[in-house]
Structure prediction request, 305 residues.
Amino acid sequence: MNYTLHQLQVFLKITQTKSITKAAEALHLTQPAVSIQLRNFQDQFDIPLTEIVGKQLYVTDFGREIALAAENIINEVHSINYKTLAYKGILSGKLKISAVSTGKYVMPYFLSKFINVNSGIEFEVDVTNKAKVIKSLLNNEVDFALVSTVPDDIKVESELLMKNDLYLIANKDFDSKPTIKDMLSQVPLLYRETGSATRISMENFLLANKINPNTKIQLTSNEAVKQAVIAGLGLSIMPLIGIKNELENGELKIVPVPKLPITTNWRLIWLKSKKMSPVANAYLEFVKQNKEEIYSNSFSWIESY
Prediction:
């Protein structure tokens, strides 16, 4: 057998994504290039690694065994690289973070400087829904998670990064009514999906104030809700952090409502039992020392609302 490290990397990504197209996107390769690497890798085995049923790619039992071996080999190669850098006095390793979808407006600012001064570190940031974020944390697949509400059913430690204000928003042409109850009797309220921290905060506010919207519409991302509000489909309660540009260019406006904004906090959380790697420890220390400066440089505009 004469397979290459690149073929192992490509095959592992295919088994993780169950798709040639998605693997190509993740590896920044063309789809034909990934297909060729899979074919060349398969040619070295008498037993099928994958199979196509209909249009869906499936990994065989043998393929899963090979994928596990490939992952172990790739991890060992990374370990060699990290040790080499460590002997040179360079901080090295991999930092894995999972962030809820709205966290995409926050996380980059708390990473950029750390990345710039630590070129020997590999970063993996997954932006997804809250359920998957918590699952990856519980499975010890990540070092940290970025959330706006801390789960109360698992033992975690946390570091406060900044506040997260949620306002009632409408499109530029909306005519405000005397009360939020009046407004929501005439137009739909747009929700995030079940389990979203934004939705939970919204529902708690509505329940506490005995507000029952006549019409509710559920959308699956912050961006989808934002575009729906801009289009005049309804109102929503949204994090200020995600609508800065739309407020500045006049596509959206904040509707003043008593007891709003709802204020939660962006926090970096990790399992209480987590054994921190040197890279994770270094990043946590960086956040503690630099979070006020990052907020001042990148998020002080929040104070004007």
Remarks:
- The radius of gyration is 23 Å.
- The CA atoms of residues 235 and 284 lie 38 Å apart.
- The chain is about 40% helix and 20% strand.
- The mean pLDDT is 88.
